[in-house]
């Protein structure tokens, strides 16, 4: 007999249980102000505190929209990070992956 796992499978039925199992985390307000200079990149990096708070103790399994150079990120966003050269939206994902995605966006896209 295998020991009972305390990890909930990720599906619609367990989503609310997963969220309720998390201890409340106090988030500070994060605001992005328009810069006087034009923003030349379409990459926007989420502050590590937000990724950690949303991912909980377990963290995220997959980030299919990681920048090409993940060393530019302030902190890893998931255990598996897929850059654009590997096309994270076309790559098969695990069925029960807890996914973080902050895709590039802006006028150039």
From TrEMBL:
InterPro entries: Dam_MeTrfase. The keyword Methyltransferase applies. Keywords: Methyltransferase, Transferase. Residues 61-90 are annotated as: Disordered. GO terms for biological process: DNA restriction-modification system; methylation. Pfam families: Dam. It comes from the Bacteria. GO terms for molecular function: DNA binding; site-specific DNA-methyltransferase (adenine-specific) activity. This is Adenine methyltransferase. It comes from Neisseria gonorrhoeae. The lineage of its organism: Bacteria, Pseudomonadati, Pseudomonadota, Betaproteobacteria, Neisseriales.
